């Protein structure tokens, strides 16, 4: 799974009826190009109320249906139709108005024949803490969610980490090798510099290249890792300095039966919150520890020049 964290501004209690008002409306039998709304997480085609309270959590999903007309195909069909009309009327060219009418007619017909694509993103709102888990790291979907959540609830959500912390992952990698954190950083590494230069390493054999990039001034912005929490629960994920959790693998949970759906969901949410708490704890350590940049530079140098 992939997810991003938001924080609700204020401490208002959720009004679930507002999710129902903005429930998803199907466009399969219409000419509409776009529809967005809330659906039940367990069944995106259900007409049940889309938001459910499970303990301290509101659980729902954001569904986005969209029809897309390919520009190249539209131009092709418009050109053919314009040629047909010119031949039929025996005129050398068509007026701008007539070309626009043809384009609109062709576009409407293409939309009618195009099945909408569907994207759903699960949303979990912890009412006690105001934290919202949005299970996507796509910024297009995130921006849509921010606007639609405000429209639906009247509440504003902000990303938990507004400003990326480009040194945090480098510090975490250093800590993982020198002791002090139960983290292993060694799988996928992405490094960038201010000019947009990017180095990607996909395995332990490419770690020297990553170290060379660090020595050259690039920042570690994304890293694959394993984290062991205080109760010895192990997680695998790729984490970014923008607080994006990607390719998260949770420990296997026990609740799988339909009758235990809520229990299984709460168990998974609990595990996710364990993971985010571990990351937050390391970030707090990063911000408060009396660390020496010289120590990190020496560590990089030992790997580069050994």
Protein described:
It is a single chain. Strands 1, 2, 3, 4, 5, 6, 7, 8, 9, 10, 11 and 12 form a twelve-stranded antiparallel beta sheet that branches. The chain contains eight helices and twelve strands. The chain is of the alpha+beta class. The protein folds into three domains: 3-67 and 115-159, no CATH class; 71-113; 168-305, no CATH class. Helix content is 39%, strand content 26%. Strand 10 and strand 11 (234-240) form a beta hairpin. The chain has helices at residues 16-21, 71-89, 96-113, 139-153, 168-178, 207-215, 261-288, 293-305, and strands spanning 3-8, 34-39, 52-54, 57-66, 117-126, 131-134, 157-159, 183-192, 198-201, 219-228, 234-240, 244-249.
Secondary structure topology:
Blueprint: E1 3-8, H1 16-21, E2 34-39, E3 52-54, E4 57-66, H2 71-89, H3 96-113, E5 117-126, E6 131-134, H4 139-153, E7 157-159, H5 168-178, E8 183-192, E9 198-201, H6 207-215, E10 219-228, E11 234-240, E12 244-249, H7 261-288, H8 293-305
Antiparallel strand pairs: 1-6, 1-7, 1-12, 2-4, 3-4, 4-5, 5-6, 8-9, 8-10, 10-11, 11-12
């Amino acid at each position: 799974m992939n997810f991003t964290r938001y924080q609700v501004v204020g401490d208002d209690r959720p009004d679930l009826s507002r999710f129902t008002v903005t429930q998803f409306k199907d466009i399969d039998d219409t000419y509409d190009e776009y529809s967005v709304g809330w659906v039940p997480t367990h069944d995106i085609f259900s007409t049940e109320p889309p938001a459910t309270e499970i303990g301290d959590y509101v659980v729902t999903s954001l569904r986005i249906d969209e029809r897309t007309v390919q520009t190249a195909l539209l131009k092709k069909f418009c050109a053919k139709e314009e040629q047909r009309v010119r031949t039929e009327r025996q005129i050398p060219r068509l007026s701008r108005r007539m070309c626009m009418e043809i384009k609109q007619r062709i576009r409407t017909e293409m939309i009618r024949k195009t099945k909408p694509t569907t994207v759903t993103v699960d949303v979990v709102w912890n009412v006690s803490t105001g934290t919202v888990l949005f299970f996507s790291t796509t910024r297009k979907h995130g921006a849509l969610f921010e606007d639609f959540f405000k429209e639906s609830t009247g509440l504003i959500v902000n990303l938990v980490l507004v400003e990326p912390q480009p040194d945090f992952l480098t510090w975490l990698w250093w800590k993982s090798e020198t002791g002090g954190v139960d983290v292993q950083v060694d799988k996928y590494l992405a490094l960038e510099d201010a000019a947009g230069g990017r180095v990607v390493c996909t395995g332990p054999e490419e770690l020297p290249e990553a170290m060379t990039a660090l020595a050259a001034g690039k920042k570690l912005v994304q890293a694959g890792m394993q984290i062991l929490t205080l109760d010895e629960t192990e997680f695998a994920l790729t984490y970014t300095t923008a607080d994006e959790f990607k390719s998260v693998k949770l420990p296997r949970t026990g609740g799988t039966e339909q009758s235990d759906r809520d229990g299984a969901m709460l168990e998974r949410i609990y595990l996710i919150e364990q993971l985010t708490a571990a990351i937050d704890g390391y970030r707090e350590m990063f911000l408060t520890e009396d660390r020496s940049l010289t120590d990190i530079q020496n560590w990089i140098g030992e790997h580069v020049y050994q």
